[in-house]
Amino acid sequence: MSGLAIENLSMRFDLPNGSSVQALKDVSLTLAPGELMSVLGPSGCGKTTLLNIVAGFLAPTEGQIVMNGHRVRGPDRERGMVFQQGALFEWMNVRENVSFGPRMAGKRERDWAQTVDHLLEVVGLKDFKEKAVYELSGGMQQRVALARCLANEPDVILMDEPLGALDALTREKMQGLVLKLWKETGKTIILITHSVEEALLLGERLLVMAPRPGRIHTEYRLPFADMGVNADLREVKKHPDFGQKREEILGMIWDMEEEIMGRSETAE
Ligand SMILES: Nc1ncnc2c1ncn2[C@@H]1O[C@H](COP(=O)(O)OP(=O)(O)OP(=O)(O)O)[C@@H](O)[C@H]1O
């Protein structure tokens, strides 16, 4: 079976003081190839833990990840990761960063050059390929990170707050780029964000998680990502359903935060 299945996933972290944290409890969902899902939820609800387990960086206490019919047992090129800070190699220029994966896989330049140059063009960095990482703005560095991830030809791209460190205008441009890459490459994408607007704009599926223990609270199927592929994102945000969903989800997360605050005040 192709696609990604998250099956009955639970994760408990045992702490040195003998207590433990139930970061995830019985999380299950499946993603068909090419689906784009955003994940939202209050701090500590297990978003990053979930992504790290899908990436294969962490082994769950219970449950499993099944990717294209086989069980995930560790990191693999089929699942690429993009972090909040690009995690680029400072000592390599842009093209060297983007071609890192294929070069490490032992491919010769003539086998990767065309793909890498095409990716640099798609992310708008064709004229910057010889530049050093430190010469780039934050937005440009995230473009390099996206291109470097795509150069590995993953089936799934996992993004942990990839646009969180960018200024508002750059962030908006990058949201458009994420949608463009999604449509052009047909990759399956899971994107964690703390921004309700971003989750609405970029998620054809939007997962709201709840904390303590981390679990799925509500899932939406939304039209806005598809709309945003061909339209100005600002126009999409003016859609009456967009505003209505934003208020609904903000209220939902607000209530969760209130509950957490209430619980910790009672505990004091
Ligand atoms: N390595 C670890 N050891 C112990 N506890 C951990 C570890 N990693 C995560 N946790 C705990 O698991 C819970 C979920 O953490 P996680 O980072 O996945 O949440 P998150 O939703 O991504 O939070 P944020 O939005 O703040 O990034 C939290 O209570 C966190 O403190």
Automatic annotation (TrEMBL):
<comment type="similarity">
    <text>Belongs to the ABC transporter superfamily.</text>
</comment>
<dbReference type="InterPro" id="IPR003593">
    <property type="entry name" value="AAA+_ATPase"/>
</dbReference>
<dbReference type="InterPro" id="IPR050166">
    <property type="entry name" value="ABC_transporter_ATP-bind"/>
</dbReference>
<keyword id="KW-1278">Translocase</keyword>
<protein>
    <submittedName>
        <fullName>Taurine ABC transporter, ATP-binding protein</fullName>
    </submittedName>
</protein>
<keyword id="KW-0813">Transport</keyword>
<dbReference type="InterPro" id="IPR017871">
    <property type="entry name" value="ABC_transporter-like_CS"/>
</dbReference>
<feature type="domain" description="ABC transporter">
    <location>
        <begin position="4"/>
        <end position="236"/>
    </location>
</feature>
<keyword id="KW-0997">Cell inner membrane</keyword>
<dbReference type="Pfam" id="PF00005">
    <property type="entry name" value="ABC_tran"/>
</dbReference>
<dbReference type="InterPro" id="IPR027417">
    <property type="entry name" value="P-loop_NTPase"/>
</dbReference>
<dbReference type="GO" id="GO:0016887">
    <property type="term" value="F:ATP hydrolysis activity"/>
</dbReference>
<dbReference type="GO" id="GO:0005524">
    <property type="term" value="F:ATP binding"/>
</dbReference>
<keyword id="KW-0472">Membrane</keyword>
<dbReference type="InterPro" id="IPR003439">
    <property type="entry name" value="ABC_transporter-like_ATP-bd"/>
</dbReference>
<keyword id="KW-1003">Cell membrane</keyword>
<keyword id="KW-0547">Nucleotide-binding</keyword>
<keyword id="KW-0067">ATP-binding</keyword>
